[in-house]
């Protein structure tokens, strides 16, 4: 459902805040700094960063540039090692049973259970493979809007934080009321603020 | 006001717009005159989601069907529901789009872009790839800007003195639709 797929799904953001004068130099530096780092060969739980919209393995933009006309096109890649609750519960209980037998004790106290659960979680995280999620975005520099190709509120929230961290500007989801402000003059905007829902029947 | 408050307090604006747009599209058999662009086609089809109330009293109605007259949806309007999501067939000049527009967040779902010469072609050099990307962006933005212009038409009416007359026509269309 991304920018290059047959059927696209997206929301629009406006970019709020001042960008530096030498923008393309700034963008190149920041995109390189926040490029995606692979965690396949590590035990890291989480990695987030920019990759090419053409290839999720291209974080140096060797095959396709992020600069296309007056647009910046990027994919936000998030890799995460996840452990299912069921697996965590199963192996935590298994470890508790093993300890009870080994130490000849009838039950495990609460603080021990918490420690066992965390140890088991870390072991399972190390065994699990990172699951990738990739979301395209397109930044129109002429009118300072961003199209983000996902309607997942979780992905949108991650983008909002990451975009601000990377580029130092805030993005604001253009819901109808905010989009309206760009389409109306000042007096109409004042009247818009006063509007209440109308009944159509 | 933060975004969460705006979404909950002002969600009526998008729902009123989408409901008005359905009325506007049927007023001239699927054609709307867009200032600056002339006649464009806006046809509501296949899929609709209507809502009424909020919080615990929120009611939803989903209507689907290939050749349906959307009678259930029209009855829903008569019961005070408004459109929350609709599948729209949009034609402007030589280009046509199909898209599902969400009223509360203005999200564009399953946007099928116009078929053009570059569409579907495999590209192997950077210039051709960039041209393809730019075309896809341009076509997505064109659909969005067209919806923006329709939204501007609605906002001009909604914030102006002509709204009371438009509301009478809209109510009459809703009442008539439910009788058919």
What would you say this structure looks like, in words?
The complex is a heterodimer of chains A (201) and B (180). Chain A is an alpha+beta fold and 201 residues long. Chain A has 2 domains: 11-80 and 131-174, no CATH class; 85-127, no CATH class. Chain A has helices at residues 23-33, 85-103, 110-127, 153-167, 176-181, 186-194; strands at residues 7-16, 46-51, 67-68, 71-80, 131-140, 145-148, 170-173. In chain A, strands 1, 2, 3, 4, 5, 6 and 7 form a 7-stranded antiparallel sheet that branches. The longest helix of chain A has 19 residues, at 85-103. The two termini of chain A are 37 Å apart. The model of chain A has no long low-confidence stretch (mean pLDDT 94). Chain B has one domain (3-175). Chain B is built from 4 helices and 6 strands, in the order H-E-E-E-H-E-E-E-H-H. Chain B has helices at residues 3-27, 71-78, 126-158, 163-179; strands spanning 31-34, 38-52, 59-64, 82-92, 95-102, 108-112. In chain B, strands 1, 2, 3, 4, 5 and 6 form a 6-stranded antiparallel sheet that branches. In chain B, a hairpin with a 6-residue loop joins strand 2 and strand 3. The interface between A and B is large, with 43 and 51 residues.
N- to C-terminal separation of chain B?
A: 43 Å
Radius of gyration of chain B: 18 Å
Element-level helix/strand string of chain B: HEEEHEEEHH
Uncertain residue segments of chain B: none
Largest sheet of chain B: 6 strands, antiparallel
Task: Give the oligomeric state.
Answer: heterodimer
Number of helices of chain A: 6
Q: Which structural class do you get from the secondary structure elements of chain B?
A: alpha+beta
- Output the helix-strand order of chain A: EHEEEHHEEHEHH
Tally of alpha and pi helices of chain B: 4
Indicate the mean pLDDT of chain B: 89
Question: Which word captures the global form of chain B?
Answer: globular
């Amino acid at each position: 459902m991304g920018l290059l797929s047959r059927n696209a799904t997206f929301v629009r953001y406006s970019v709020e805040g001042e960008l530096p004068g030498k923008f393309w130099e700034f963008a190149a530096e920041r995109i390189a700094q926040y490029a995606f780092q692979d965690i396949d060969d590590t035990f890291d739980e989480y990695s987030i960063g920019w990759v090419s919209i053409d290839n999720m393995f291209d974080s140096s933009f060797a095959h396709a540039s992020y600069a296309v006309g007056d647009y910046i096109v990027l994919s936000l890649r998030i890799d995460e090692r996840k452990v299912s609750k069921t697996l965590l519960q199963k192996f935590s209980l298994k470890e508790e049973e093993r300890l009870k037998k080994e130490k000849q004790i009838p039950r495990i106290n609460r603080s021990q259970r918490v420690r066992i659960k965390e140890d088991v979680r870390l072991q399972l995280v190390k065994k699990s493979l990172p699951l990738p999620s990739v979301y395209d975005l397109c930044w129109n520099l002429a009118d300072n809007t961003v199209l983000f190709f996902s309607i997942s509120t979780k992905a949108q929230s991650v983008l909002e934080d990451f975009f601000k961290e990377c580029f130092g500007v805030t993005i604001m989801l253009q819901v109808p009321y905010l989009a309206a402000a760009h389409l109306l003059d000042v007096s109409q905007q004042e009247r818009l603020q006063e509007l209440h829902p109308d009944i159509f029947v | 006001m933060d975004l969460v408050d705006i979404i909950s307090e002002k969600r009526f604006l998008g729902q009123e717009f989408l409901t008005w747009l359905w009325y506007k599209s049927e007023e001239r058999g699927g054609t709307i005159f867009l200032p600056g662009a002339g006649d464009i086609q806006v046809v509501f089809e296949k899929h609709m989601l209507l809502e009424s109330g909020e919080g615990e009293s929120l009611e939803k109605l989903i209507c689907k069907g290939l050749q349906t007259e959307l009678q259930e949806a029209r009855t829903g309007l008569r019961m005070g529901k408004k459109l929350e999501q609709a599948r729209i067939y949009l034609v402007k000049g030589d280009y046509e789009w199909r898209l599902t527009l969400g009223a509360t967040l203005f999200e564009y779902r399953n946007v099928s872009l116009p078929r053009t010469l570059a569409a579907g072609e495999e590209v192997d050099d950077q210039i051709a790839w960039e041209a393809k990307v730019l075309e896809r962006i341009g076509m997505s933005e064109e659909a969005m800007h067209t919806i923006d212009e329709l939204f501007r038409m609605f906002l001009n009416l909604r914030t102006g003195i002509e709204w009371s007359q438009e509301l009478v026509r809209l109510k009459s269309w809703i009442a008539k639709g439910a009788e058919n």
